[in-house]
Amino acid sequence: MAGVLTRFADYLRFEKGHSEHTVRAYTGDVKGLIAFAGARGVPVGDIDLPLLRAWLAEHTRRGAARTTVARQVSSAKTFCAWAARESVLPADPALRLQAPKAHRVLPTVLDADEADRAVTAAAGDEPDEPVALRDRLILELLYSCGIRVGELCGLDCGDVDADRRVLRVVGKGDKQRSVPYGPPAARALQDWLTRGRPELATAASGEALLLGVRGGRLDQRMARTVVHRATGEAGTSIGPHGLRHSAATHLLEGGADLRVVQELLGHSSLATTQLYTHVSVERLRKAHEQAHPRA
Known about the structure:
Blueprint: H1 2-15, H2 20-39, H3 49-61, H4 66-85, H5 112-122, H6 130-145, H7 149-153, E1 160-161, E2 166-170, E3 176-180, H8 183-200, H9 220-234, H10 240-253, H11 258-265, H12 270-273, H13 275-291
Antiparallel strand pairs: 1-2, 2-3
Helix pairs in contact: 1-2, 2-4, 3-4, 5-6, 5-9, 6-8, 6-10, 10-13
């Protein structure tokens, strides 16, 4: 099993270009699938459609969320297609496997005042300290640009075009895009590069834009901690993806074209971006209910 999982992980990582998070999730699902088959005396090469359905039914019976089962279906279909091509399976048994329709959950977003308070809270009580300058920049870039936390932590100094106020971002599948940022983020970026980063940089820092306290590239876990702390102090604790949702929602509410927002967020499908139109309508509906005498 270990050999099959290693080859599958390499396929996801190097041929499909998936993030490490996706690689871990998919290989974890497939490891569970293979263990489920093994417990029933079925070797990897004999996995078939009834067994796949039994595996998913077992997770559903145990109370797994629809989104989790949908991901497991995706993992199984990706694995079976790969295994058939690699002759691990004689044929692809997952061609007729269907995912449950997931419930659409509107993402939590901050309003503009909450976002402003979160950015201010990120700097803490000593806003001129290097870590405070970095934390403020984390909030500014995530909210100003709507980028993913992995994209943020992957930024290098050379990805910043200060003259045009644009970031070069490497997204999913190693796709590059240019994302503009505004004057507040520009000021935070300038403060970090001139007064913050030089204090934390070491020989091991390389070109990493954002650094940890020991000088290495900032990891995603620390970035999430910073965001949760700052947004919690602002009144609504959300993570980096919540700031991404907030940025997209505020852009659309401000009149931005849906396809422009799609490009900024790096969505491959417009259908993904259209979720944020539902967010905006929901916010308008709530405001109407609270304020209109006939609501």
